[in-house]
Amino acid sequence: MSSEGNKKQFWKRNAAKVPGSIQHVYGAQHPPFDPLLHANLIKAGNKPPPATPNKPKKATTFQEFESITSDAWDVGDDDDELLAMAAQNLNIKVVMETANQVIENHSKQQERQRLDDTTELEHREEDTQEEVVAEEEEEAELEEEEEDEEEEEGNRLEEGYVTSPEGPFASQIGPCTDSLLVKSHSEAPIGSPRDAAGEHAALYRQQSLPHRPPVIPLVARMADQNTSGTPALTEREASRLDKFKQLLAGPNTDLEELRKLSWSGIPRQVRPITWKLLSGYLPANAERRESVLQRKREEYFGFIQQYYDSRNDEHHQDTYRQIHIDIPRMNPEFLVLQPKVTQIFERILFIWAIRHPASGYVQGINDLVTPFFVVYVFEYIEEEVENFDVSSLQEEVLKNIEADSFWCMSKLLDGIQDNYTFAQPGIQRKVKALEELVSRIDESLHRHMQQYEVEYLQFAFRWMNNLLMRELPLRCTIRLWDTYQAEPEGFSHFHLYVCAAFLVRWRKEILEERDFQGLMILLQNLPTMHWGNEEVSVLLAEAYRLKFAFADAPNHYKR
Questions:
Q1: What are the residue boundaries of the Rab-GAP TBC domain, all occurrences included (predicted)?
Q2: Of 327, 377, 402, 552, which residue is least crowded by CB atoms under 10 Å?
């Protein structure tokens, strides 16, 4: 580059490839690159790069490097040009042959798999039959031995030789006892040999299947049902249900008494009307309830006619699109996968967002519809909601459920709307208060999280945003909301103490984690899948204790 004669252009074209330049890969959309089929892709004078030698090359001068460097951004080597050239020279016959061969190989593989499965099933049936035959032979031998023993015993009795009933084998001699000594009920032969064979085959199939955890319904059948899942009403449950019915049957419901009764849980049979009363959706006067329901439902569907068609307008399409994306992410999936439920949830969330422009729609609000919807569905069905097709309900019933869910969700959000306004100041204040509260009630837990740089906002934001719905099964959320409805400012105030009690509940598991990653994985995936009303009741009792100690003395937990 020092003299004009030796000066060369830096980005000069050459046969060698630039290290790191883009190379086309043939495979997923093209057959493997074949030099014979694509000879005209190789430019005149270009040769395939030689194999890398074992010995490293000597260092070259800058001029030599300059001379063998080609321009990766040259117009002649553009990606589109190369792809176009490759497409023009592809042999369509080779492509079709390759595709047919792939399909044929796949079909053969599927056929082999099917034959293997059939053979394996036949072998299993043969083994099961052999085992059944062996069991029958063993039982026959045992029967013969028993007959021999009876004959022998009879001979002994005839000879006047009687074993003392107090001897070690007295249980085998008594007339009402079985001659076979059985260690447990599971070893006793029950039923005929055919029954035993069927039972054995069923056991064999069960052992061959992968282990499945016991299924726990997402919504408890009774308000006071525990994880054990007792189907029948206990005396306590029946007594509580009678108290609710008597209270609700009066001409004017005493809301204070209803709150006290609801704090410990609401029976499923009366939960829909109790939630509507406690949320302020229905009046305490029984005569006015029907007219209020009719007016509010008509008002909601008036909003549908007025606003819902604007969901595709320029100003609202982003809101509707976000709602449409978030609904499939909700829990439980069995509900939101039903098209009818998806349409109902979209209407509820969109109308609420249009009527509350200060916050609009925010992720997290979508989860708050589910408990109301499920509880109000139970007003019209007896079976569990997991296996129920919502579209089988009458159209008028679905409209009532939709309108009631909208108004009750609106009442809830009116008390916590600062959680969803710009920058979500309500959530930030509550997370800060949670941190201060935990530092006072469990300093070792608080210091442990500080030591590994875990910020409360990193895990507690979701607890406040979704009201613990992502941390608890739906059956526990509904039980929790019984108390929230009964507690003054339950969703906005009492929830803070529930979160504090919930965090301290896992102190042992938290203190065992010794790194940031382990702590975050635990706090975002707490093992509550098998929780029931017992665990929720203990959690609420501890939260009430914290509220009683700290709610009226805010300076007590500030350092």
A1: 265-488
A2: 552
